[in-house]
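Query form — protein Right-handed parallel beta-helix repeat-containing protein

QUESTION: What is the three-dimensional structure of this chain?
INPUT:
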Amino acid sequence: MFNNRDVHITNCYFENMNEMWGENGDILGLPIDELSWGAGIWLGGTIPSLLPPEGYSPSEQSLLLDDFSVTHCGFQDVDTGLGTGFYYPRPYRSRFTNFRFEDSWVTGCVNGSFALFSVDGGHAKRIDTWVGGTVEYNSGTTGGFVQDCKNFLIEDCQFGGNIRPGKSHDGVGFDIEGHCENVTVRDCVVHDNDGGGLLVLNTGGWNEGLLIERTTFWNNARNPKADPGMAVTDNAELRYAGGAPNPSFYGRLSNVGIYRGDGVGKGTPRYYDVTGNWVRDFSPTDVRIDQTWADVSDRVLDWSFDTSLEGWGDANQWDGLSVDQGAIVGQSAGADSYISSADTWVNTRDIRWVKVRMSSTKGKVAQVFYQTETEPWFSGDKMVAFEVVDDGQLRDYIVDLDQVETYRGVVTKWRLDPTLEVGSELRIDAFEAGREAYVSSLEIVSPNQLKLRFNQAVHLTGGVLDASSYVLKGDGVGTLAEHPNSVTMLSTDNGPVYQLDWEGGSIGASGETFLRIQMIRDPHGNVSSRDVEVVGDADSDALPDAWEFVYGLDVHDPLDAKMDSDGDGLSNLEEFWSSTNPLDAFSRFAIVESTFTPDGKVQLNWLSEPGMRYRLETSVNLVDWVQEGEWLTASQSEMSRALDAAEAPLFVRIRAAKPSRTE
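ANSWER: The structure tokens for Right-handed parallel beta-helix repeat-containing protein are given below.
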């Protein structure tokens, strides 16, 4: 039972663990028998102990588990996502050490997305709960809970939507229940809870070294009223039991934004339940209370610039700034051209990417900067760069903001730098906040197997494991069926990967191939439907994986692109570009004959591939080339073209292009 180590749970799903634990929501149990309540994962049990006033037994102060983690899990309608607890042994804050809860979501919780007792060391990071449960719990409901813990960090988490079912008390976003030491809440968002955003109590004993920083609270205290038989909860964003001054460092409240919601029958919510207690024991600094939720709740998240700049401005090195045909236009007048958005309110736990629809005629890189509620300035560490095609054509660019750790809290303003070059013609057609999941990577594993990963969590019962949610289309599908035969979730350290298998057939060696993702739902209910191009190149040798698979090359060997597998004088890469067979020496792109015709012309004959496009070019110096006619599409295995004979030496070359490319 004691001194367990190295227990790790990852990529699991838990559902409907939400039965009431006692009559009328009361916690029932008798010493020394322990109890639990509905939880996805619960660490507990009976520990041999001595009842007061006897002294501690050795088992009461022993390590139970070291190095424990829960990652990439989903908890649907559970009273608690991850819990630890012992009611009857006296508190010991080091029963669990090196404890980690990461990258998971919890809905329906009434006793916390996590409810931790007796944890020493570790963290909860990127945990989301946004809708509470319906189970009555008389002693109070919460989105997250710690008691008898020390040296623990809660970072980049979301605690929202907690409610007070029946006669339940509290309904708070996060609860520090007491007897905690060196516990930090940082870079979190806490919003739309029935009770206060944060509750600090001394129920389990004095706290020491608490730090609440860089956190934003909004629109809490949505139901502070009393139903029959239920006490009124304090109508305040931050609640603290207070008490006699603690002789040591109790806590700090620093760089916090509080945006109060409207009153709901008990008057306007207060910032603090008892201001004097917070001032005395938390020494608040940089607490922003100058705006309410009503001041920021209607801010725009998406812009299409149909008729105006829609609040965008503060442009730099941008000539001719205007709106033309539903887009912001202009020219870059320097290497630091940019334009800033109107004020916005983006919960970074809900919105993980943005879509920029734009065009540029010069420059391969663009950038998105952002300000946050806790850091209202632009800086290089709050920026994501993305590649662009500078051909003047409008394209949609997905910018994954999870690339940088500073994407936390609430974004209040964007800045778009569409080019880093001077003299680019710019056009910004739309800037939108992305809500649904998208495919962030797609790998061709074999001629009849694909693996894909989403940028954020999708619901395991939301269609992601349904073969009909995936449609293969395009002229490069080869002999594969429209839908895969099976979909399997694979567990990895970086989250789940979904494997699509076809029982027969093979993907094509050429042509465009797309995988249609349709009606896949995430835990918030957002639905993903979009096309993803199947263009894997695992070894970055410019040979598509599908082509290498079909012709038996190694998708993990970049050197095989330079090889001449059939000995016809053309490398495998040259064979790919000419759409010839790299395993057949008679399938090659070459001029096979040049003859003079009776009318004084030179006729060229070359081997061709049906469907490929060809164009002749001439030069007198092998430097400057002149196009001779338009592109010709081959319908047979050999083509010919006549050119006027030249008086001086003339060099001729033939360009080949795939049907979907210009050259």
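ADDITIONAL NOTE: The chain has a mean pLDDT of 90.
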